[in-house]
């Protein structure tokens, strides 16, 4: 590890004058990092600040670029990728400012952003964290704020009702489908891309928990901050530009796997091991999501099989490759939401059915009855889908789908490469009805409470 702490007057102020420390963690985003630092350098702000860059063993020339283009910026060049959480803790350990900004490198900073946020923080000492609008390069607003995960969120996620009712007070809580990005308001979890934090908050609750190396560290941090009595505020009065997950896209499959395992850790930490275990029985959160009830060698090798491709299947190509290797003589059909998949996968399957519904994911409740009839006539021996072992989005919806087609077996292929095979009927189906019923009850309760609240206010 090499530590560089010279001060560049174009990007830093003297230590005694520093009010803001800007902390950036970089991994193989050299071009984005350069643009970000240049935007900070060019931005017009009346606040004194320093910039600290932690590079996690990038292989794209980031370290060389930093040395040549920004030789006096405070920096640590790590020999290994120690993770986002640990690298941010390194940066916060060097920070001298009264305020600390955790900033992703795939951002561009306009004028006066820092002035606006410091003015708001100075005016209200109850605010521990503040964030602003994130905008796409074309100026449109990104919807990145979230609610902290809870049991209700998981029930809606597993039943798929979170997507069907995104503006419901509970169903839309995790993704905040009802959040107004034009109003200043408290929020549970602003995006980790841009977190403007009072240093006394860090002294109070500590830095990131490093058991969450890349995902859920900001979720855990926000929960600890709120639990300590600080406010977290979103303001639309200023904004930055964001290119969206530049580092994550470089290892998408691994990143998604890590995200879902970190979610499981989060529940265990904040709700206890017993709760996490019970939740895993109804909301698949990883490769231990349930017992394998049938082996592949018990499956009819000739099929036919139906492969369900939802809009969120980053690893569908690997999934179909493995199935082809396991069942070289089998007949495969694909059900997908994307018409272009008919061209892409037409030579790999017997039929490619296109689902047309009101959502961009396949729903048993909204499928065309003629299409469902055609699928039933095929008498599928198995229904396979490549995602539910780890993310669970609409998991029980797919189980019901397998039941409706009278399939003898269903199989989920996780992003972690682990298969989860099960009989979709019997007890498995009863668990699905329990989850779906509980989610519907919560949905109705939320509507009733909202009506009563409106009447009370009027």
Protein topology:
Elements: E1 2-4, E2 20-26, H1 30-42, E3 49-56, H2 62-69, E4 74-78, H3 84-94, E5 99-103, E6 107-108, H4 113-123, E7 127-135, H5 151-159, H6 161-164, E8 185-186, E9 194-198, H7 199-205, H8 217-227, E10 231-242, H9 252-271, H10 273-282, E11 305-309, H11 316-326, E12 332-336, H12 341-345, E13 351-354, H13 369-377, E14 382-385, H14 395-404, E15 409-413, E16 419-422, H15 427-457
Parallel strand pairs: 2-3, 2-5, 3-4, 7-10, 11-12, 11-14, 12-13, 14-15
Antiparallel strand pairs: 1-4, 5-9, 6-10, 7-9, 8-10, 15-16
Helix pairs in contact: 1-2, 5-15, 9-10, 14-15
Tell me what you see in this structure:
It is a single chain. This protein has 458 residues and is α/β, with parallel strands linked by helices. The protein folds into 2 domains: 2-145 and 181-246, Spore Coat Polysaccharide Biosynthesis Protein SpsA, Chain A, CATH 3.90.550; 250-425, Rossmann fold, CATH 3.40.50. Helices cover 37% and strands 19% of the residues. The protein has 15 helices and 16 strands. It has helices at residues 30-42, 62-69, 84-94, 113-123, 151-159, 161-164, 199-205, 217-227, 252-271, 273-282, 316-326, 341-345, 369-377, 395-404, 427-457; strands at 2-4, 20-26, 49-56, 74-78, 99-103, 107-108, 127-135, 185-186, 194-198, 231-242, 305-309, 332-336, 351-354, 382-385, 409-413, 419-422. Strands 1, 2, 3, 4, 5, 6, 7, 8, 9 and 10 form a 10-stranded mixed beta sheet that branches. Strand 14, helix 14 (395-404) and strand 15 form a beta-alpha-beta unit. The protein is globular. The N and C termini lie far apart (62 Å). Residues 1-9 and 287-291 have low confidence and may be disordered.
